[in-house]
Amino acid sequence: MKIDERDFRSRLSQMISGSGMMRGTLSTREKVCGKPTCKCARGEKHTALYLMGSKDGKQRQLFVPQVLEARVRKWLDQYRQAELLLEEISDLHWAKIQEREV
User: Fold this and answer.
1) Where is pLDDT greater, at 68 or 102?
2) Count of structural domains, the chain
3) pTM of the model
4) For residue 58, what are the β-bridge partners?
């Protein structure tokens, strides 16, 4: 079965016009707030989620509120899926050149 480049392009187009995408990774951090009566004083640390990435060679990070976590995870996943589709399209073109079908 021959892989159809149009299928890859169509899937990529749907992703791009969909709910959004972004490059980065998520990092969970634990911290102690310092209040003597807080749960973290007993060892149950507070957790926070951060979006990590680089731009123009510089690292950046951004706190992700719980209410946005699912959306951010979806955007990150969409980006990774788009990268995979782009790789598939690239591989198809490599094969075309190799087989002299250009």
Assistant:
1) 68
2) 1
3) 0.75
4) 55
